[in-house]
């Protein structure tokens, strides 16, 4: 029953993440932009997490210089992800944006191979092929409306997928000795700082004192960042990264369903089949990755004296 609780926590975090693109696109209709929305989301999340850290029993955060810089840079990657992803939905549908964002699964494999020399095995390469097939179907790239697609939006979504992969790889390798609360706080601070630096003129020119904008920003910060971060940090160590990665694929169908309800976006049969193919391929990839990691740990412990 304990594992069930943590499984539900990961699922809830994925569901919350999945709703964000639809609400951001809805907020665009109120005259707001990706820069101010993504910045306020990251900044308020850092404030909320910092307040929680201040009120916690542990008090002060003790980080080495390398840990602090690494976590800030990791936050920069997720900040760029949110900004680019939010930018993409101003050009393409929320459904298409989430489909392209899911390419982070094979981008992360390429990063592990290029940077750390971890060559993907045959089963991983096969699942990448199925992810790409599912993507082509889900994006309806062979449909009649392909000429109406915004390639700017697709490029932005692809870039957000790459930076998301960088964030995932970096987050798994830095700050292992840092508690989840200060780690999340510094990452969100790095996210806000990065978005501010690349959009300084737009952000400084924005108006942030209206009740409407405040409610939007608080909603994005709490539902899109603070609560999922807390849920993942508490639950993922309990059930493992492999199972968690499979559970987090719920973000894809939730985003598509939310886009259908909130934005009235329509999907055809081929697109639905493509999404199912992607979900199956991503789940299979993460399953085999978890088995591979388990075997490596077992062999490592067997060799240790």
UniProtKB/TrEMBL annotation:
The keyword Chloroplast does not apply. Its main location: membrane. It is a multi-pass membrane protein. The keyword Transcription regulation does not apply. It is found in: Cell membrane. InterPro entries: AA-Vitamin_Transporters, EamA_dom, EmrE-like. Pfam families: EamA. Residues 5-137, 152-285 form the EamA domain. The chain crosses the membrane at residues 7-27, 39-56, 68-86, 92-113, 125-143, 149-170, 186-209, 215-236, 243-263, 269-288. SUPFAM superfamilies: Multidrug resistance efflux transporter EmrE. It comes from the Bacteria. Keywords: Cell membrane, Membrane, Transmembrane, Transmembrane helix. This is DMT family transporter.
């Amino acid at each position: 029953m304990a594992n069930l609780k943590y499984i539900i926590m990961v699922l809830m975090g994925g569901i919350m993440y999945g709703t964000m693109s639809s609400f951001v696109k809805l907020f665009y209709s109120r005259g707001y932009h990706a820069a101010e929305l993504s910045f306020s989301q990251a900044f308020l999340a850092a404030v909320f997490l910092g307040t929680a850290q201040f009120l916690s029993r542990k008090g002060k955060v003790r980080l080495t210089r390398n840990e602090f810089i690494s976590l800030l840079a990791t936050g920069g990657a997720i900040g760029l992800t949110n900004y680019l992803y939010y930018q993409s939905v101003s050009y393409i549908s929320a459904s298409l944006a989430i489909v392209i964002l899911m390419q982070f699964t094979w981008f992360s494999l390429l990063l592990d191979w290029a940077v750390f020399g971890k060559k993907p095995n045959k089963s991983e390469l096969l699942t990448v092929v199925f992810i790409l097939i599912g993507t082509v179907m889900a994006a309806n790239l062979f449909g009649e409306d392909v000429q109406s697609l915004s390639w700017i939006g697709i490029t932005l979504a692809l870039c957000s997928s790459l930076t998301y992969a960088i964030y995932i790889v970096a987050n798994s390798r830095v700050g292992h000795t840092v508690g989840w609360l200060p780690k999340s706080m510094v990452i969100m601070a790095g996210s806000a700082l990065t978005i501010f630096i690349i959009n300084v003129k737009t952000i400084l020119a924005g108006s942030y004192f209206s009740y409407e904008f405040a409610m939007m920003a608080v909603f994005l910060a709490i539902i899109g960042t603070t609560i999922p971060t807390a849920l993942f940090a508490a639950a993922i160590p309990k059930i493992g990264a492999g199972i968690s990665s499979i559970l987090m694929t719920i973000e894809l169908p939730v985003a598509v369903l939310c886009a259908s309800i909130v934005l009235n976006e329509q999907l055809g049969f081929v697109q639905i089949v493509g999404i199912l193919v992607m979900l199956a391929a991503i789940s299979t990839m993460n399953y085999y990755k978890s088995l591979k990691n388990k075997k490596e740990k077992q062999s490592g412990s067997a060799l240790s004296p």
